[in-house]
User: What shape does this take?
Amino acid sequence: EALHARRHLALTIAWFFAAVAVRPSIGKLLRILGSATTMTYMYLALTHADDVRFRQSMRGAPLFLCQVVMSLVDAVPLLKFGFFVVLSVAEWRWLPRWLTLGCRSLRWMLAAAGAALAWRRGRLLAWPLVLWSGGLGNQLEIECQAWTRLETWLWEITRALSIPQGVASRLLSLVEYFRPATTPAEASVPTVGAAAAVVARAVVVTELGNDAGDAVGGAASVWPSGPQAFGCADCGQPVDGVRWPAKGPSGRLCDDCAAKWVASEEAAACAWLQQQFRPGDGPASKRRRVDCCEVASGDGHEDVPMPHSDPTPAAHVGVAKPNIGLARREVLLLDRGGPRWEAVVSCIEPSPQRTAQEQHWDLQGFERWWWYNQTEEYYDADKLSEVLFAEAMGIDHGAIAVNCDGLTPEAKQLCALVTEQAPHLGIVTPATALSGLDSLKLTRLAFAIKLRFGRALTAGQLRAAGTVGKLLAVIEAADVGMPVEHRINAPNSGSIHEATGEREYAVWFSPGQHFPMGSWVLRSDTPLDMPALRRALAQLVDRHIALRAEIIDPMHYMSIVFDAVVMWDLYWPLLYRRGIPGVTCLRRFVAWALGRCWPRVRCMPREAFYKARFPEQPSVPLHVISQDSHGRPLLSQSVCEGELKRRTKECCDPPVQFLVLELSCFLVDFWAHRSGGGHFAIVRTALTDSTVGLAYVDVPSGEWGPLLGPDSAQWRTPPYRFPALFFIPLNTGNIVWLRLERADEIHLCYKEGIARTATEHHVIAYRAAPQRPRETGGPPAVVRHIALTLFHCYGDGSTYTPLAQDLFALYDAECGKPGLPLPSLVGPHSFEVLERRLLGTLHGAPDRLSLRGGLWRYDGRGYGYSFGIEPKAFALLSRAAAAVGLPFDITLLGLVLCSQARADASNLVEFTIYAPMRDGPAESSMVGLFSDWRDVSLGVDFELATLLGTLGQLFHTFQHRLWSPFNALRKPERTVVNMQPLDMQRRSHFQHLGENLWWGGDRFREGPAKRSEEACCARQPLTFNLEQQDESVWWILVDAGLNERPPAWMRRFSLSLRQAFQDFIVDPLARVHQPLPEGVMGI
Assistant: This one.
């Protein structure tokens, strides 16, 4: 690639001198330079005109002129470049003079407009250098590559001649007929015929049962075709015009009889629930719990708080709850009996009696089965795993008595602070080692130290401290910032260092990052003080300058400058290596030009920035949503999730958006199962510890339990693909997750016990009396969600934590709650730090930005695979990591990389990681795009590398920043790693929700995920995304290229990852490169 870039530069220079050398003259040279200058500033004017047309940043005549000009550009082949060629050719003498003068005038007017824009922005001399030195080539390819295909020309011709679409489609199909059927990448994708697809669908329907058949084939048997006429089974009155009549024990009922029947059933349920509480028992949370091992089948698990009542006979458990038979590939980390995967593999081991052809057919069938059915697997643990881990680590579970007398108040406060932020350390004393702290725990600990001690420490200082006692000495020796005794609710608190007027900054971000990041969603079941929230948001926006910033240059313009700086970043090593004199002066000149042309971000005062869009005082980017886009109230989770997705992805305005959604849940009613004839009631009661004062009562089964939200200590993570609204621990030891799918439809996930192997059921229920008003049960339970959405160009994944910390600290202060004041932001703000980094990079600073771009990219197809780490497996791995003094995120990443090395049979693993790059004392509390790509190399020797040694090497590399900036030339071959931990700490009365609780809808009943027949486009040959789903659940999402890493590699990686998890728990000194199992097909 470097030789390719050097050849392009040489050919460009040679072409210019060759053009001048043919009949050389001063006039010809001036004409060439004049034409190039005209095109340079004309291109700038067209770029701004396109941006005005898209964003509508102007009104009146300027907007109309931009729309007219860009309509002409769109009608010309090759777009802007083709428009310039057309205007230049139109100046030939054989054309009519009026056309020649018009084209010449338009060309010079556009060039003058571009020159005026460049003069106004101080880029008149710098812009030509930036455009022609590297920013033009990639833009020419982007705008012209579509016109190199015949389909584009046929489409434009048919559109210009108004040919019907059917004829155009036939012409395009004729072009496709003469093309190859598949590409080499597509040829490696397993394919099956239509008959096999029908069989696969039939198998899915058979596994899921009747309910799944309705979901797949339609629910015509469930919904009546129209209003029905019948006679009431109780009063005998004829009823006509009712589409969904209530069905009681005696038959279909009229509205009055249905209301009486439902009211009587609710009263009976309340009376039965009252009988379950013995006199003097008190709330359910204060009474004796039932041990799960007494009521749940399985291999034994830890106890979970459950309401107490007389256990139900086994015959009554799970009445009218159809089993959909969900099967998933689940692996026990330390199960000596062998997981399901080994059973599957043993079925396909080649038999010595079979011929080679038969074994080849077996392998083909297995490849097809794996491609469609194996997309994910889960890692879990049991009691045996915990015992083996304790034996391997020599852990003594006896009580530890620690004498904390004689400690200073500061030492006691710091020990309590470390215990709060790092509970895995157990009892903390000044001699406790600060081991096992990942990046998120370090960020929270730094914020807590700054909040309580008034000192700002970096992550490096926290890691280098070693023990709590040394950390206290570091805190005492640190410089004290602003006094912490200032009033938190003072106007514009924390903005004393901010610019009071408008100011522009040159900060780095790629054009593709101008989109909303994934939202942070928090939930509260208690009322929200909206005026206090508005005042807190106003102080938050005043505090962080990135929340009132806008990009003032077009995105297309930024792409040009971005390509130029990437090309120059590749030129400099070649020029320095050649020893060309004057390279240093040339670099300073180019750095000046790039700095002048770099797109600017303008920051404004809050009132001036938001007043036009949010006139309500104080002006903050806050939307309160209680209705959907059609004006209907939010009465169901599906509507709420759809509105949340639309508002955070499609209708989100930069730079930030705060969204409050109020979901009104009318749950108090008598409900009937869609199939099976079962009934249950949701009643309002104060006897349970429910967060919303509601209880689930199933009298026939003898089961009841409170409705709990995610902020409850009894909350358990729902199954994947089932975003639950409430969790219900039943008195029998069984558990239920409830989801309000529609206003009158509830989905339940019923699990028979909490054992790992317990059967799960999916149940759909409707109101037993549909014609009865849902408001009859009283006021709804209102669930409020707050969504924080920030554009990626103004922040990264580590930005949400300081943003949430500041927001809810300010909110608590506005509500009058006691607490420590929020410390001020001392020193330069985020955009000043980022601008300093960018300018240092342009001048060749050692610790520079990566300046990654899209000039070189991977082109191929790939597939995905997911590994889920469930709570018990997570607990074992985190305890094992803490036992050897390693952070969990580094441990998980290291085990993944060791598995990759073993699957690749390689002694060197090279990857690119998205690093936070927040090393300054106050940078952990800033809002800005600090994260950057860094290249890391990890040696994994075939004979000597052990798991613990490799993890220690990786931790040392990250701790001491032994990495290098990303090399854009090697992007098509790099393995990209991204880690996304979640901060699940409760703030104020809000609980952070994982994405599994508000995204995707109910897909649980669809069964395990299936892979489509065609492979999707891959961005890299290998990508690892390590995402935290919940407080104790992690996902390892793998995207692999088909050509580089086929499915056989993924199976080797799966076996290697499982072996790495097992060895790290019981034998951390085990070798990384161990022989793979012999005689196993498909690896």
